[in-house]
Amino acid sequence: MAHVLETPRLVLREWSQPDIPELVPLIGAREIAATTLRIPFPYEEKHATAFLASVAKENELRMAIRRRSDGVLVGGIGLHPEMAHLRAELGYWIGVPFWGNGYASEAACEIVRHGFSSVKLNRIFATVFTGNTASERVLQKSGMKYEGRMRQSVLKWGKFLDVELYSILREEYA
Fold this sequence. Notes:
The protein is an alpha+beta fold. It has helices spanning 20-27, 30-34, 45-57, 103-117, 133-141, 170-173, and strands at residues 4-6, 10-14, 61-67, 73-82, 87-94, 123-129, 145-156, 159-169.
């Protein structure tokens, strides 16, 4: 069953093959890869094809973020659930031309709502690289609280990076 979520300005829907020509150049910016853990650089069509194949196999909610006004792809968002623990990790990215418009915050708030209301999660968490204050603001706007820093938790492009951990519990959301 295909999920479609809507906000005042956005439509979030599952990725599909026709998204690839728009996805590759948008997600392919070095700035996107630099702020995410799992997006390779350079990003090529083979990565998009593998991504779409994995979406079909895994128990994840991965969605394209499109503007309602014109249907333009602005980014992606998803939840990686661990249902044995009723928790999920939130991940997202917004294309560089669309930074600073509040799209990530709007989409994150909707995904958090969906995670608690429809997926019946107890905890949603996310991590950001230390220094990514824009992404930290997105998590704060979605209701998440700062839990702490995981020092040298990630090896990215040959450097160990600290990450900041945020979360929200069902009882805090309600």
